[in-house]
């Protein structure tokens, strides 16, 4: 895969299935570098495979489709260039869509009422005078913000308290075909400064449940509860007990219970989050504590499977396991779970209706395809990844296991270019740390392999997908077991004669950038490095990051000596490795000062180094940043590696600084 191949990347989202199970509809998105925008269309896919998938919308960015329970309507979010997402409704039998909302900051995904006449959703409500609500007042002229709590800003959003997310309900127009009559205005059901998210309907339509943090001192812990409210905005009540982190509620068909994804207990102060695994739980609709349906020591719900899907007395859930995300059917009565999709796949979306389950499944050759599961077996429905695969520039990963210094088994992958070796090596380290590399098409890996590098990546202790104990192992000791695991896996990989052990670089982002920077202070074995959006100083991170007020305390500890031992910046004086530092100017997760301070320390000591800053971007640059920025980032990274580890496919073209092998 080359950087320009980003335009060929097709990524399907979570599907919706018509009530009779015959048709799935899914949003398929792709980056458009020429327009510097993302595009997305809705595609209709017959679940019996009788006809090929076809696009059914032509908006600039159409996402989040949802069939009405009666099958007559398809609601979705549509975003026009320069606009915000709004809810549109399309007749399933054919016709023109009609827009139902005009929220100033955009609407969230639509959720149908049981009678198919109303749609619930959430939308951010800006404080008057902010975010362009008054013409002629730009951001620089707004009044000052008075901050009184710890939770006030989030990466990718910005400030929170002056634009909280609230629950709304909007009726369908009485005469859908007469667009000269204004659609009913959405009715706001909730209020206050706390975000309200993940709204869902009770089966009789008499109540809605949602997730929020409205307890006393909610800005000082990570607790989120399920709340319920009536469709007229009255009867607000708390459903869960206020000790854990709840998300994605769904009522059981009888309305007597809710199934939620939850970490049931975050400890007495509500901050015990390290490697606490989220699992499906059942809670009485009348109120109570969530009861796990899976063992949270062994299972972790995949972040990429939004929504809670109930079917035939069970919840369908994606669970992380050794680099995969498997699909489990978990009975609500406490029976043994059944694995429906396993192996070298990542389940990213789930829907069910009639007698069919449709899942979005990614693997190392496609960013996602639809798979239908029926009583007669499974059926692949789409070929969205076919065009990218036809380039011949996708490379298969080889699964490997190595032994750490203490005998622990470290699991990972090596992806090697075609043609004879030995190939120079890039050791890449994932973020998190409670995340996993795995069986999904990763543009990063594919671009580097196509440029002539063997890519080595593993899931060291601290990663998810191997149980809670594996994730907790590095608590209070970042740069210990995790660093040992990564280097042991690298050393084992380098015994392969196709890999050049004398030409090795290292790179990582977020926590991966942290571990990269820390290792650079301990060894000069790497030819060069890329440190991206990294936590480099836990002390300043605590006062500048959106999660800084709790994250380093719980993961690294609070003792000054222990923090210094785990701080890359405290050991940066020993770094001699040429280092490219990459950061986004609006990154609130790992603020830009973290990268700037590392760069300045290296530069003033004469270490070959560069600082690459992206304006207008946050922490998610590599995954959802502007397409041209993603393309530019790849070009700069490949330029850096061409300077220090040139290959036939990525040759050095001269070193502007007069040092390095490209000179």
Automatic annotation (TrEMBL):
GO MF, any single term: serine-type endopeptidase activity
Keyword flag Protease: yes
Pfam families reported in the protein's UniProt record: PD40 (PF07676), Peptidase_S9 (PF00326)
Alphabetized UniProt keyword annotations: Hydrolase, Protease, Serine protease
Gene Ontology biological-process entries: proteolysis
InterPro entries reported for this sequence: 6-blade_b-propeller_TolB-like, AB_hydrolase_fold, Peptidase_S9_cat, WD40
Domain of life (superkingdom): Bacteria
Tagged with keyword Hydrolase: yes
PANTHER family the record matches: DIPEPTIDYL PEPTIDASE FAMILY MEMBER 6, SERINE PEPTIDASE S9 FAMILY MEMBER
Protein name according to UniProt: S9 family peptidase
Natural source organism: Blastococcus saxobsidens
